[in-house]
Amino acid sequence: MKFLLDENLSPLLRDLLVESGHDVIHVRDLQMAGSTDEVVIAQAATLGRVLISADTDFGAHRRSRRRRNSHPT
Question: Would you state the pLDDT for residue 56?
Answer without folding.
Answer: 84
